[in-house]
TrEMBL record:
PANTHER family: MAJOR FACILITATOR SUPERFAMILY MULTIDRUG TRANSPORTER MFSC. Residues 18-498 form the Major facilitator superfamily (MFS) profile domain. This is MFS transporter, DHA2 family, multidrug resistance protein. CDD domains: MFS_LmrB_MDR_like. The chain crosses the membrane at residues 16-36, 56-77, 84-110, 116-133, 145-164, 170-192, 204-223, 235-254, 275-294, 306-326, 338-357, 363-384, 475-493. It holds the Pfam family MFS_1. InterPro entries: EmrB-like, MFS, MFS_dom, MFS_trans_sf. It is found in: Cell membrane. Keywords: Cell membrane, Membrane, Transmembrane, Transmembrane helix, Transport. One of its GO terms (cellular component) is plasma membrane. It is a multi-pass membrane protein.
Length: 507
C-alpha cells in the first residue's frame, strides 16, 4: 500500500458507515460531559451522599478527560491511531457499564475517572481518522458532521440525562453507551485498520506526564470548588491556583526542551493553528454560557421542567442541523476568515437578543434567539476547526487535534465557573438593590389578603425572581459583546492557502 493515499483505502459505503461510527463516538463522549449534570440529585439520593459530594461524579470525569486529551498525539505516535481508538472505545464501554453498576460513591468516581481517561483520546482521534478516510475535497463536510455532534452533545446531555433519571433510573445514563460502543468498535476494527498510522517507539516522558497531571488536576479542582468557597478568599482555592500556575510554567519549559515530549507544544509555532484553536476555546466558552445559564434560569425563575428547559436550548442544535451542510461548502468558496468572523458577529447579535428577556417570557420568546444562534454556530465551529487543522502538516495532526480539543474543554470549564460565579454575584447585587426600593415607606407592609410573614415571603420570591432575570440579561450582554471582540481576533490568523487539506502529500 506504499504510495497509496489513506483515503483510497476506505471507499464507498464503507467510508460512509465509518464516518457515521466516528461521529457517533464523538457524540457519545461529548454527551457524557453533561448527561450526569442533571442526574446528580438522583445519584446523591440513591447512594446516600450529599449533593456537593455528588458533583465529584462530574469533576472526576472532567479532570481525567482533560488530562488525556492532549496525550492523544503521543499515544497515536507510540501505538497507532486506530489501535488507540479501538482500545479507548472498549475501555469507555467497560467503564460505562461499571459506572452503571456502582453502589458506592468511591466506586462511581473511580469508574468515572476510567471513563474520562478512555474518552479523552476519542475526541481528537475521531477528527484525525475522519481526515484520513475522506479525500481533500470532502474533508470539510466530514468535519462539519463532526462539529455538529460536538455542538449538539452538550445540549442533548441534560435533556437525555433528566428524562432517563426521571423515567428509568440514573444507572441508564451510563448503560446507553453500550450499543454505540459495540457498533463503533466493530466498524472501526473491520474498516479502519487499513488506515493505521505509522508507529514509532519513542521513550515515555514521565516527568512531563506527571507535571501535566498535577497542573490540570489542580486547575480543574480549583474551578470546581472555587465558586462554593468564595474563590481566592479561601486559602485552599488560592493554594490550588498558585500551585497550578507554577507547575504549568515548569511543564511548558520542560516540554519545549524535551526531545520526546508527551505533549508536543511546538505545534503552536503555526500561527494559523494557534489563532484558530484559541478562537474555538474563546468562542465555544462564550457560547457555553447560554447552555449553563438558560436551563437553570428557566427552571428556577420561570418554573419550566428540566425537559422543557432542555428543549429550549436544543433549538440551537436543531437550527444548526438545517445549515450544517452549507458551512463546509462555503469555506471552500470564499476566504474562510470572512465566514468565521461573520459567524461570530451573527452569534453575538443572537446573544444580545436575549438581553431583553423578562420573568414573564414564554417558551417561544426564549426559543427564538436559540434558533437564530444555531444558524450561525456551524459556520463558526466547522470553519475554525478546519482552519486550525489545515494549518499543520499531517505528521502533527494528532497532536494538533488533541491540543485544540484540550483548549476547547478548558475554555468550557473556565467559562462555566466564571459565568456561574458572576451570575450568582449579580443576582445578589440586583436583589439587594430591589429589596432596598421595595416598600421604602412601609417596611413592614403587607399584601392584601396575606399575613405579614406571607407578604414578606412573596416579596422575597419576587425579588429573587427579578434579580436572577437581571443577572441573566447581564450575562448575555457581556457574552454578546465578547463574541464581537472574538470576531476581530480571527483576523490575526493568516489566510489559509488551501482549506481542509491538512493531509496533503498522501499516506
Amino acid at each position: 500500500m506504499a504510495g497509496t493515499a489513506s483515503y483510497d483505502l476506505v471507499t464507498g459505503r464503507r467510508r460512509f458507515v465509518a464516518g457515521i461510527a466516528l461521529a457517533s463516538v464523538n457524540l457519545m463522549v461529548v454527551l457524557d460531559m453533561t448527561i450526569a449534570n442533571v442526574s446528580v440529585p438522583h445519584i446523591s439520593g440513591n447512594l446516600g451522599i450529599s449533593p456537593s459530594q455528588g458533583t465529584w461524579v462530574i469533576t472526576s470525569y472532567a479532570v481525567a478527560e482533560a488530562i488525556c486529551v492532549p496525550l492523544t498525539g503521543w499515544l497515536a505516535q507510540r501505538f497507532g491511531s486506530v489501535r488507540v481508538f479501538i482500545l479507548s472505545i472498549l475501555g469507555f464501554g467497560l467503564f460505562s457499564v461499571l459506572c452503571g453498576l456502582s453502589t458506592t460513591l468511591g466506586m462511581l468516581v473511580a469508574c468515572r475517572i476510567g471513563q474520562g481517561l478512555s474518552g479523552g483520546p476519542l475526541i481528537p482521534l475521531t477528527q484525525t481518522l475522519l481526515m484520513r478516510i475522506f479525500p481533500p475535497d470532502k474533508r470539510a463536510r466530514a468535519m462539519g458532521l463532526w462539529a455538529m455532534t460536538t455542538l449538539i452533545g452538550p445540549v442533548l446531555g441534560p435533556i437525555l440525562g433528566g428524562w432517563i433519571s426521571d423515567n428509568w433510573s440514573w444507572h441508564w445514563i451510563f448503560f446507553i453507551n453500550v450499543p454505540v460502543v459495540l457498533f463503533s468498535a466493530g466498524i472501526s476494527y473491520s474498516f479502519l485498520r487499513v488506515v493505521e498510522t505509522p508507529v514509532e517507539t519513542v521513550p515515555i516522558d514521565r516527568v512531563g506526564l506527571a507535571l501535566m497531571i498535577l497542573w490540570i488536576g489542580a486547575l480543574q479542582i480549583m474551578l470546581d470548588i472555587g465558586r462554593e468557597h468564595d474563590w481566592f478568599a479561601d486559602p485552599t482555592v488560592l493554594a490550588l491556583a498558585l500551585f497550578a500556575a507554577i507547575v504549568f510554567v515548569v511543564f511548558v519549559i520542560w516540554e519545549l526542551t524535551e526531545e520526546h515530549p508527551v505533549v508536543d507544544l511546538r505545534v503552536f509555532r503555526h500561527r494559523g493553528f494557534t489563532i484558530n484553536a484559541l478562537t474555538i476555546a474563546f468562542g465555544f466558552g462564550t457560547y457555553f454560557a447560554g447552555i449553563v445559564v438558560i436551563p437553570q434560569w428557566m427552571q428556577i425563575t420561570l418554573g419550566f421542567t428540566a425537559t422543557w428547559a432542555g428543549l429550549a436550548t436544543a433549538f440551537t442544535g436543531m437550527a444548526g442541523l438545517l445549515v450544517g451542510r452549507a458551512a463546509p461548502v462555503l469555506i471552500t468558496k470564499i476566504d474562510p476568515r470572512i465566514v468565521l468572523s461573520g459567524a461570530l458577529v451573527w452569534a453575538g447579535g443572537a446573544t444580545l437578543l436575549r438581553t431583553n428577556w423578562t420573568s414573564g417570557a414564554d417558551f417561544w420568546t426564549l426559543g427564538l434567539p436559540q434558533f437564530i444562534m444555531g444558524l450561525g454556530m456551524p459556520f463558526f465551529f466547522v470553519t475554525a476547526t478546519s482552519m486550525s487543522l489545515s494549518s499543520v502538516p499531517s505528521r502533527e495532526l494528532a497532536s494538533a487535534a488533541g491540543l485544540q480539543n484540550f483548549l476547547r474543554i478548558m475554555g468550557v470549564a473556565v467559562s462555566t465557573s466564571v459565568v456561574m460565579t458572576y451570575w450568582n454575584d449579580q443576582a445578589r447585587v440586583a436583589g439587594s438593590e430591589l429589596a432596598g426600593r421595595l416598600n421604602p415607606d412601609t417596611p413592614g407592609g403587607t399584601i392584601a389578603g396575606f399575613s405579614v410573614e406571607q407578604s414578606r415571603a412573596l416579596m422575597a420570591q419576587l425579588v429573587d425572581r427579578e434579580a436572577l432575570t437581571i443577572a441573566t440579561d447581564k450575562i448575555f450582554l457581556i457574552a454578546g459583546l465578547l463574541m464581537w471582540l472574538i470576531a476581530l481576533f480571527v483576523w490575526l490568523a493568516p489566510k489559509p492557502k488551501r482549506m481542509a487539506d491538512p493531509m496533503a502529500g498522501g499516506h
